[in-house]
Structure formats: C-alpha cells, structure tokens
Amino acid sequence: MSPAILFATNSPTYSTTLMNLCRELYPQVEAFLPGDEGAERAQLAACWAPDPALLKHYPNIQLIHSVAAGVDHIGTDLLSSGVPICRVVDDGQKVGMFEYILCGVLRVQRNFDKAAMEQASQHWQRYPMRKRADMRIGVLGLGELGGYAASQLAEFGYCVSGWARTEKSLAGVRCYNGIDGLQKLLNQSDILVNMLPLNGQTKGILNADLLSQLPEGAYLINCGRGAHLVENDLIEAVNSQHLRGALLDVFSVEPLPSSDPLWTTKDIFITPHIASDASKPEIIHQLVRNAIKLSTGEALNNQINPMLGY
Ligand code: NDP
C-alpha cells in the first residue's frame, strides 16, 4: 500500500499548499485534504491545531504528525489518544531561532531598544558599550532549539546558563535543573530566553514570581508559546521598571488582538510569530520519511512522549 497523507491544519490554504507541494515532490505518495475522495486511506495526518474529532472521521490514521517543532497545538484529546505523535526537527530552523535570539540579545547589549525610544523624542544619549562576556543569558529549555541557541551564544562569547527538566552537559553552558536550579539561573540572567515547550508543567511559568527573581533591569525574550507568559505580570514588571523590557514572538491569541495592551506597552517589542520555522519542502520530506517508516514498521523520527507533552 502506498503512503497516504491527510493535510489537516486549521488553515485550508496552508493545507492545500502543503498538499500540492507533496504531490509535486513525491508523486508516488497519496496526498489529501479532509473530505477528498479516498482521504479515508490516509495513514498519517499532518496537523497544526487539528479538529479534535479528526480520528473519528479517519480511522485509518496511525500517526499524527505536527507540521512544526511544537506539538501543544495538537490538543490534549489527540495527544492522549494513544496514536503516535511526531514533530519536525530541522537544522535550518535551529539556525533561524539562534539568529532571532541573537537579534534580541544584540538589541539590548548595544542599546538599540533605548535608541528607538529616544529617537521618538529626538533625544541624543550615548550609553557605555557592554562586552559579550559581561552579558549573562539564561535559556529555559535546552532541547533541539534551546540547546542549539545556548551553545551558539556561548561559542559567541556570551555568559550562558541553561535550564532543563533533566541534567545536561553543554560545552560553555552552565546547566541547571530542578526548582533550585531555576532560581539560580534566574538570579544571574540579564536576559532570559524562553525556549520551553508548552505543557501542564510550563503553562504560565513566566509569571510575577519568576520575573521577580530576575535582576533589576533584566530583559525577557519569549520564543516558546504565548501561554507560557502571564501577560499582566509582564506588563506590571515592565511598567514598574523591574524589567527593562521584552521581545515577544508568541501570544496566547494569534494574531495578537488590536485591543491587547502588549501592543502599546512601552519597551515591549512584538514580532508576529516569526522567530523560526522549517521550510515547506523540509516539512514535506520529514512527513514522507515518517509515512514510509510507518508502512515498513521502522522506528519513527522525532516521536514525542505524550506523557511529557513534548
Ligand atoms: P524540545 O522538545 O527539543 O526541548 C524541550 C526542552 O525543554 C528540553 O530541554 C526539556 O528538558 C525542557 N523542558 C520541558 N519541560 C520542562 C520542564 N517542566 N522543566 C524544565 N525543562 C523542561 O523542544 P524544541 O527545542 O524543539 O522547541 C521548544 C519550543 O519552541 C517548541 O515546543 C515550540 O513551542 C517553540 N517554538 C517556537 C517557534 C517560534 O517561531 N517562536 C518555532 C519553533 C518552536 P529535557 O531535555 O530535560 O527533557
């Protein structure tokens, strides 16, 4: 039986784009949209925020594959359905994420954030230059993306710490785990970068209590998920000048509604979920490779542990 993939993201346009690319790159693979004739043959569902009732309509689905690095959008019903879940892990995406984080770090280190504010009032102010080795960066999450970014920042000469669930050893990175480890990392982070996956343990982790453990004038970069952050706690920490500011790429509701106070909070810089993604051809290659592995019974690539949620 030839591999068959159902493209079931929450955007019909995006699903169609991926399906057409799959047909172009792999004519031997059957590619469907929900409702297409023959779609019930699909063994793999390629998903972003799929309909939780998906499996009921397509009982032949044996693998749910995120079209991204994260899997939280798949939802608890499907994550706990017992069907294997895989995700995309891509070297190009790691580089892109590192570049995004480096932009945020340099913006603070070289005071571009202050210059942007002061330009508005035509205020000329020079600040002392800070060396990379004097910038203490803490990275929450040392997985594929966070671990790569932490290592690259360390190689670049920054003073880097990282925090994960389990013990880690990364060249040039002081690694912590556990609650005590988190506190140590926070106390010594001028810039805190969130690269955690969203799950029951990490939802709301960027809250008033955590932010209060950062040094005065620290800066937050959130590239994980919007629901990691308690928005009002951040706004309070920035308005009270405990924090210098924040660079936010992800939000609980996307697109960020125009009424959201984050848009207008001074010193909060917003980007529209652009930190990094895998290219569409790479996503298709990884989906097809796993569809073939599924049909031959080989171990799947980048399978997540549904109990951990990542
Ligand atoms: P991984 O699954 O490879 O790594 C997750 C890391 O987080 C691991 O080091 C893990 O620890 C750690 N972790 C998980 N739970 C906890 C916890 N409770 N306490 C402490 N540490 C924990 O994920 P990736 O690096 O591939 O991606 C991370 C997230 O980045 C994605 O889930 C997604 O939400 C986000 N993302 C954002 C993008 C954007 O454009 N803004 C693009 C792509 C991803 P351990 O290693 O010990 O298990």
Automatic annotation (TrEMBL):
Domain named D-isomer specific 2-hydroxyacid dehydrogenase NAD-binding: residues = 105-275
Q: GO molecular function of the protein, one example?
A: NAD binding
Q: Which residues form the signal peptide?
A: none
Q: Which UniProt keywords apply?
A: NAD, Oxidoreductase
Alphabetized Gene3D superfamilies for the sequence: NAD(P)-binding Rossmann-like Domain
Q: PROSITE patterns annotated for this entry?
A: D_2_HYDROXYACID_DH_3
Task: List, alphabetically, the CDD domains matched.
Answer: GDH_like_2
Q: EC number(s) on record?
A: 1.1.1.81
Q: Does the keyword Magnesium apply?
A: no
Query: InterPro entries, alphabetically?
Result: D-isomer_DH_CS, D-isomer_DH_NAD-bd, NAD(P)-bd_dom_sf
Q: Which domain of life is it from?
A: Bacteria
Name this polypeptide is given? Hydroxypyruvate reductase
- Originating species: Marinomonas posidonica (strain CECT 7376 / NCIMB 14433 / IVIA-Po-181)
Instruction: Please spell out the taxonomic lineage of the organism that makes this protein.
Output: Bacteria, Pseudomonadati, Pseudomonadota, Gammaproteobacteria, Oceanospirillales
